[in-house]
Amino acid sequence: MEILPDKRDLRIAELEAENARLRGCLKERELYCAKLAAQLEQALKRIDQLERQLDLNSQNSSKPPSSDGPKQRAQRKKKENGKRAQGAQKGHPGHHRELWPPEKVDHQKQYFPTNCSECGLELAAEDARGEPVRHQVFEVPPKLIECTEHQRMACECPGCGHRTRAKLPEAVEKSGWGPRLVGLLATLGTLTTDTRRQLDWFVGEVLGAPSSLGCVQRHLEEASAALKPGFDQACTAIQRAEQVGVDETGWRKGRLPHWIWVIQSAQAAVYRIRSGRTKAVAQEIIGAPGARIFVTDRYGAYSYLAAERHQICHAHLLREFVKMSELDGEVGQIGKKLEVMSRELQGKWARTNADEIPHEKCVIWVRQKVRPKWEALLKKAAAHGKAAPAVVRWLLKDKHLKMAWVFLEHPGVEMTNNASERALRGPVVQRKISWGSQSNAGLRMMERLWTIAETCKRQSISALDYITQAVEALRNEAPAPLLIA
Predict the structure, then answer these.
(1) Which residues is 437 bridged to in the sheet?
(2) Cα–Cα distance between 53 and 216 in angstroms, integer?
(3) How are beta strands 163-165 and 256-264 bridged, if at all?
(4) Which alpha helices (H) appear in 241-358, and where do they start and end?
(5) β-strand 310-312 against 293-296: which pairing, if any?
(6) What tens digit of pLDDT does each residue of 231-253 get?
(7) 17-38, pLDDT tens digit by residue?
(8) Beta bridge partners of 269
(9) 301 contacts 277 by C-beta, under 8 angstroms
(10) Of 53, 68, 322, 470, which is least packed with CB atoms within 10 Å of its CB?
């Protein structure tokens, strides 16, 4: 007799199959939930990162002050001396316009009192006594430019009757503008960051000379050629300097991104424009390091420099500490302490450079009081792991700790890279106005103009006079003037 399967066994099999299916669904659901949780965690981290970026400003990052919005400007922390009244402070030496010596004065007018201020007796010019009180008024004459017409005369030969016309001197024939006008244009285009159209307007409307955009550009190119020897002199001087600062910022060649690199010392500043911002470019700009001391920010392209001769900028570190102080918890509290300590350090070092505090006394204070506490706070922050900013772990590496205190071992070395940043302010303004260069020749022109203008300032010589002399030398095929004595 055939035995029929038990209905209960069939039901058990169905339930086991359904249970297996549900277990599979549950496992898939768990995997899906885990995936969603991971995505949520990643999204929250990204939101936190973006919110921190929104809070970045010139006080807690390397962003320039001009990038701050109205809200950020209103929230800027005031300096310690922010309660001072505006304008010159009591005891501050005044800045007064100097009088020209008598031999430079073009016109002179004399005024005599008509009556005695005491008794009223009538006075005459013959009664004048003592030196006059001088007051000078400067005015722009109606005609600011002079024009010299060069006429090529023709003479007829009495023998054959042929007429021969004279040739212009080569220096005159090369241009319709004189060397000083070319020097003025180059100076205005660099120091005042005027555009080509503004220079064209100035020559035509203010000076009253015929001008065009093409004429302006042609003479700026002439100035660029004239300034190459001076540029080369500045490059040589930078290689001989004991201390240099290096920095970089953006530029453009047409639609392509480029970078302006500046390497500067107390005597000179050299600008280079390159298509890259890499270690290889930094090595090209710097050249052989030699025994020079370098001051830079923490950009990785400079990491190849020897730590014992490489000072990192404490102004950049201060901004990192300000950003760290805005974090929650103990890490934020440590950031506040580091910020206060950094401000005190930079303030005392500035007073030391101003000879208000003996140098050796300040160095001892930094070594015994500041540096140990500074490093202890960094280690305390690093104990929080990833909750601490990356700059904390970066600074605690032996090489980077050395780089933070190089200025203590070498008198005269700056603890910030502010001088290099100031040297780039003009080019940054020019970038925003002009949108960069359009050709390789344009890149070389800007390099030379910036280099000459900034180096002249550091040499305490007139950029206008130097460029004028350089153009004259080029036209007369004479040796270029010395930029650095």
Answers:
(1) 253
(2) 43
(3) unpaired
(4) 279-286, 314-325, 329-353
(5) parallel
(6) 999 999 999 999 999 999 999 99
(7) 888 888 888 888 888 888 888 8
(8) 264
(9) yes
(10) 53
